[in-house]
Amino acid sequence: MLQRKWTSRWPWLRSVRESAQLQRSGQSELRIRTRAPPGSTRPPAGRPHASAAGQQIRTGAMKPDICRTFSKETEIKTQENNQSDREEVAPGRSSRAVSPPRVDPDGPCALRRLQPLRYACQRRRTRPGFGSGDVAGTVREDRSCCRGMAKEQSRAETYVLAGSNGHGDQQWQTGVNHSARPPPANSALTWRMSRVASDVRQKCAAYVLALRPWSFSASLTPVALGSALAYKLDGSVDLVVLMVCAVTVLVVHGAGNLVNTYYDFSKGIDHKKSDDRTLVDEILAPQDVVMFGALLYSLGCLCVTLLYFLSTLRLEHLALIYFGGLSSSFLYTGGIGLKYVALGDVVILITFGPLAVMFAHAVQVGYLSVLPLVYAVPLALNTEAILHSNNTRDMDSDKQAGIVTLAILIGPTLSYVLYNLLIFVPYVLFCILATRYTISMALPLLTLPMAFPLERQFRSRCYAKIPQKTTKLNLLMGLFYVFGIILAPPGSLPLL
Predict the structure, then answer these.
(1) pTM for this one?
(2) Which residues of the chain register pLDDT less than 70?
(3) 302-308-311 Cα angle (round to 5)
(4) Which domains does the chain have, with CATH numbers?
């Protein structure tokens, strides 16, 4: 009777009594350390206690700051609340925030809700179950008062987020309940569209790099030179024809680079240290390179057809020049592979020199002339220097692949001599033109200081960066050459 009277008078003592009983029976699992609620009083000293825990409190051996556990009634209610929460989340296994646990207003720790911040309960998470339908990371607390916090404080409680990771197990995160918002309805569509756009940009960049755009100066400067000769000698230039002609030469040049990439890879010439690793690094597939090359050749044919209607040049002359250049770009590595039998230098010397200059001049004036062939010699020699430096750099790998180039045939010493001739002979020709005809032809001599470092690097056999630097020299020298022709006084240029 005395025990029942005390437990009804001080509700917290009932929990102490049950805690002591659970400790003695060895059934206590989870505990949380708290202090006695403010405002509560101890039982009067001198009154007998019915349990050992009560006796310890009376004598002062056990302070109100004690370890308490759930009562059986509270554990049953907590399990029911957790089961209902699991039934809300488990069927769809969707990544939704678990709703705040239900509150037991009549629980033994209701006083705890008066100061939820000061007496915040500590939590422990269990390891998430794998392959089960339970909410991963179920939070187990020693006091039901943690579930009975005030409504405004429960919003800031930590919640558990569960969802499948695609491998049959569960992954879980923690967050803040008030920050949980369902994802926008169009978020998946937006992400997918951005992913597709990113893939398209990467694919386009891969195609552009496969064209080797840094080498396009070898085809643009001959077009500019032929058009400048047409303007200076005949006094007329059609800008539309100039643009279409430039596109035609560029697409044929790009298609030739793709053919070179494909056959060098198929013959095992390209490797991880090669300058062109489009297929070696699997940036593009071989069939993509083939299709892209065929597309560029077809586009070149359409441009030539358009030139036939825009220019007064006869069809047979137009077809002869165009298909001559197209065949050279393909046969350089495709078909019989002129590059592999030491004839690649001859092909480049003719195609990217006299042939391209004649093509640009003919579509402007409407007839064929030998004059562009003479003016194309300085530019053709400098363009050939690009190829020769590239072949000299790849001399060892070409030997291992079993192909023959001019650099392999003549050796490093004669390759150095030939490179110097290809670099410095154009400057000699410019000096002759400047002294005998017009001073404007001395403009290309401004690039002469760039040639001496290339000669020193070639002599020391530092071939790594020479092709790129020679390409830059070719572009600048070609531009100054074109400007020199345009700025020349009327009638000052030599005629044949």
Answers:
(1) 0.61
(2) 1-186, 496
(3) 130
(4) 2-68 (no CATH), 72-178 (no CATH), 210-487 (1.10.600)
